[in-house]
Amino acid sequence: MICLGFVLALIIGCSTPVCAERVIHVDFTQAELRVADADGLVHLSTSVVLPKGSYYQIPVQGTVRRAMMGPTWIPTPRTHIDMPGRFKEFYGPYEPGNAMGHCKVYIDFDRRDASLQYVRIHGNARDEDLGKRLSRSCIRIPDEVCPNLVDVVAGYDGRVRVHFHE
Question: What is the pTM of this model?
Answer without folding.
Answer: 0.85
